[in-house]
């Protein structure tokens, strides 16, 4: 789709300097701008590129002052960064505005689907599934029996959703993610070995949750594994059976949360955090990268670091001593030798 400078200025409540009829159909970085694209300048570090860019349109702050001729048409706004972010969101919505059901997709006769459905090639919707309005289901997605998917949710190619899963509205699930696979639970037996414990619960994902690529979210043994409203996951995250992640918590890549742990609201976990099972993590907890949590965190708003993790300020102080440990040992050895000599 093409948009004119006049149309974009109207959307962004901006003013035009240059040709109001110039059209663009794509977005670009200012240093890689090409004809027919729109870019923006917000960081002064990139100011040099505006004088040579081939982008047809550039969004700038109202107070931007040019020191040389500029080929591109300018749109002046209060905040170039915020305006461009708005355009990115609109562009993404247009790009994802797919509709129609492929002839190579399958919908069970007992399933119910809403209006505006997009169902890609080789996607499957199982028995008694309930799919809301304006849902986008990309190719090769499997949606199992009795699954519920809320309005305006997007499920990207290759996602597998096991039976009885409940997914809310305005969720985004990226490729390769598996939701509702069995929790990892076995009971010791005699010489016959371990016996698998059936996992008959489900997964519940509330509204406005985004799950990155190649995540695994296990179904509960009994009850539900729950991701509360507004949770955001990076890629490669494993959530074990009966875990609950509180509202608006953010988990970076490679987090592993063991079974039955409860994570509070507004938590932020950096990459490669590991949490053992049956713990309570208080609201607003921050955990730094590669930390291992082996006991509950009961005080809200703390920052934890290390493995096993503890208060970040104490960890930093302890780490200073650890780095000086060799010098400390040498000093102790020296003092012991001096003491022996004085005693001898």
From TrEMBL:
Record's subunit section: Homotrimer.
E.C. no: 2.3.1.191
Keywords assigned: Acyltransferase, Lipid A biosynthesis, Lipid biosynthesis, Lipid metabolism, Repeat, Transferase
Functional pathway: Bacterial outer membrane biogenesis; LPS lipid A biosynthesis
Primary gene name: lpxD_1
Residue ranges annotated for the UDP-3-O-[3-hydroxymyristoyl] glucosamine N-acyltransferase non-repeat region domain, each copy included: 21-89
Alphabetized PANTHER family for the sequence: UDP-3-O-ACYLGLUCOSAMINE N-ACYLTRANSFERASE, UDP-3-O-ACYLGLUCOSAMINE N-ACYLTRANSFERASE 1, MITOCHONDRIAL-RELATED
Functional summary from the UniProt entry: Catalyzes the N-acylation of UDP-3-O-acylglucosamine using 3-hydroxyacyl-ACP as the acyl donor. Is involved in the biosynthesis of lipid A, a phosphorylated glycolipid that anchors the lipopolysaccharide to the outer membrane of the cell.
Entry superkingdom: Bacteria
Active site per the UniProt annotation: 241 (proton acceptor)
Organism: Nemorincola caseinilytica
Protein family per UniProt: Belongs to the transferase hexapeptide repeat family. LpxD subfamily.
Alphabetized InterPro entries for the sequence: Hexapep (IPR001451), Hexapep_transf_CS (IPR018357), LpxD (IPR007691), Trimer_LpxA-like_sf (IPR011004), UDP_GlcNAc_AcTrfase_non-rep (IPR020573)
Keyword Ribosomal protein: no
Protein name: UDP-3-O-acylglucosamine N-acyltransferase
Major enzyme class: transferase
Catalyzed chemical reaction(s): a UDP-3-O-[(3R)-3-hydroxyacyl]-alpha-D-glucosamine + a (3R)-hydroxyacyl-[ACP] = a UDP-2-N,3-O-bis[(3R)-3-hydroxyacyl]-alpha-D-glucosamine + holo-[ACP] + H(+)
């Amino acid at each position: 789709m093409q948009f004119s400078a006049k149309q974009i200025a109207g959307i962004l409540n901006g003013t035009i300097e240059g040709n109001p009829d110039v059209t663009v159909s794509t977005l670009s970085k200012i240093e890689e701008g090409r004809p027919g694209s729109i870019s923006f300048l917000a960081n002064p570090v990139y100011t040099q590129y505006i004088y040579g860019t081939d982008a047809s349109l550039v969004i700038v702050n109202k107070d931007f002052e040019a020191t040389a001729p500029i080929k591109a048409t300018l749109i002046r706004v209060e905040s170039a960064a915020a305006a461009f972010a708005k355009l990115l969101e609109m562009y993404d919505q247009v790009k994802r505005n797919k509709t129609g059901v492929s002839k190579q997709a399958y919908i069970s006769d007992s399933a119910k689907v809403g209006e505006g459905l997009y169902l890609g090639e080789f996607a499957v919707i199982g028995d008694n599934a309930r799919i809301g309005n304006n849902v986008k289901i990309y190719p090769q997605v499997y949606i199992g029996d009795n699954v519920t998917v809320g309005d305006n949710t997007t499920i990207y190619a290759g996602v597998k959703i096991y039976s009885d899963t409940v997914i809310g509205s305005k969720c985004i699930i990226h490729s390769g993610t598996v939701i509702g696979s069995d929790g990892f639970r076995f009971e010791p037996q005699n010489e016959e070995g371990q016996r698998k414990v059936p996992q008959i619960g489900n997964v519940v994902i509330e509204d406005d949750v985004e799950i990155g690529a190649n995540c695994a979210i296990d179904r509960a043994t009994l009850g539900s594994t729950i991701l509360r409203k507004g949770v955001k996951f990076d890629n490669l995250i494993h959530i074990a059976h009966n875990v609950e992640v509180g509202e608006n918590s953010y988990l970076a890549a490679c987090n592993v949360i063991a079974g039955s742990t409860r994570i509070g609201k507004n938590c932020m976990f950096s990459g490669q955090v590991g949490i053992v099972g049956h713990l309570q993590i208080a609201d607003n907890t921050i955990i730094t990268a590669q930390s291992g949590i082996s006991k509950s965190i009961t005080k809200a708003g703390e920052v934890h670091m290390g493995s096993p993790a503890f208060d970040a300020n104490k960890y930093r102080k302890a780490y200073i001593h650890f780095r000086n440990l060799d010098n400390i040992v040498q000093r102790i050895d020296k003092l012991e030798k001096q003491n022996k000599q004085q005693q001898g």
